[in-house]
Design goal:
Elements: E1 19-20, E2 33-38, H1 53-61, E3 80-85, H2 93-110, E4 112-117, H3 123-134, E5 138-143, H4 163-169, E6 173-183, H5 189-192, H6 194-198, E7 201-204, H7 218-228, E8 235-240, H8 262-271, E9 277-283, H9 294-313
Parallel strand pairs: 1-3, 2-3, 2-4, 4-9, 5-6, 5-8, 6-7, 8-9
Helix pairs in contact: 1-9, 2-3, 3-4, 8-9
Length: about 325
């Protein structure tokens, strides 16, 4: 059988310069956290290119140098491995989701995983794998410009903007413990209000204008804690880089004006570090549309901050 070659968009370097691990989930001594790339953008409905996101985020992470976080005074590098980019079907959404869920299961049994997308369709199979492992639905915090609750994508049943509806319908997440932050894109009311009608909370971008520091965001932070922290369910974070205003993240497939600032997202990540996080993804980074790598650097900084917050709040888990 001929050797299997990695796709040309695969990334060779690692996040924060961490040690390279294996995607089969075999645990490495001292590594409790893993980064995995999912270079799939076959479900994009506007500008493609998120398959190059994992490589761009890893490259931008080199700007973080020794990775010692100024708030937590900690570097996650020694507790982290990077398993590289998963080799998945490149064009079929259904086959990709099946393969991704299967690949996620051994990784989740060994590590707390941060996934680098890829478009937002990758979140659904990851949630399926988490739901199977936890034996219960998850709480979810979703930062995005888009509600991702459409019933179809231009006649196709599923895509990168349908996964939230599918996750609620499949009971992968707890509707009352679902919080969406930064929503602002055009959408019919049936789509825009789907999560709220199901019992979740939607914090649109208008609510967050001009509010950057923890004091100004206190009611938002407390509201997320009250929903996602009630009864300590497992909590998953999905962070679409287009939650940011295009001024902070031009390198994405579906930019929407009027979004969050990098400071606002960092404040939320820092103040919510004590939740019972079980994993995260950062998706929709499309470096072909970036300027001076600012989108990739924001994504790398968010993943780094999440990891440091998680280690600082649960140093022995």
């Amino acid at each position: 059988m001929p050797a299997r070659y990695a796709p040309p968009y695969s990334s060779d370097h690692t996040f924060l310069g961490a040690a390279r691990g294996d995607a089969d989930g075999a645990p490495r001594q001292a590594a409790r956290f893993a980064v995995a790339g999912v270079p799939f953008d076959g479900a994009c409905t506007n500008r493609p290119g998120a398959r190059f996101g994992p490589g761009a985020i890893r490259a931008a992470s080199r700007m973080l140098c020794d990775a010692i976080h100024p708030l937590y005074d900690y570097s996650p590098r020694d507790a982290l491995i990077d398993v590289g980019d998963l080799q998945l079907p490149a064009t079929s959404l259904e086959r990709q989701r099946e393969a991704l869920q299967a690949a996620a299961e051994p990784l989740l049994s060994a590590y707390h995983v941060c996934w680098l997308g890829g478009d937002h369709s990758i979140t659904l199979p990851i949630l399926r794998a988490h739901r199977a492992r936890a034996g219960r639905p998850l709480a979810i915090v979703h930062l995005d410009a888009h509600c991702d609750a459409w019933s179809d994508h231009f006649g196709e049943r599923s895509g990168h903007g349908t996964w939230m509806r599918e996750a609620i319908q499949e009971r992968l997440v707890i509707p009352e413990a679902t919080v969406q932050i930064g929503i602002r894109s055009p959408a019919a009311s049936e789509t825009r209000e789907f999560v709220q009608r199901a019992g979740g909370r939607v914090i649109d971008a208008r609510e967050l204008r001009g509010r950057d520091n923890p004091q100004q965001l206190a009611d938002v932070i407390d509201g997320v804690r009250a929903r996602a922290g009630r009864d300590r369910p497992p909590v998953y974070l999905t962070l679409d880089i287009d939650c940011l205003d295009p001024a902070f993240a031009p390198g994405t497939g579906t930019p929407e004006a009027g979004g969050l600032s990098t400071v606002q997202v960092l404040t939320l990540l820092e103040e919510l570090a004590e939740l019972n996080w079980v994993g995260m993804d950062c998706v929709e980074v499309a470096p072909a549309y970036d300027h001076a790598d600012i989108t990739s650097l924001a994504a790398a900084t968010f993943v780094w901050t999440y990891l440091c917050g998680r280690i600082a709040s649960a140093p022995s888990t």
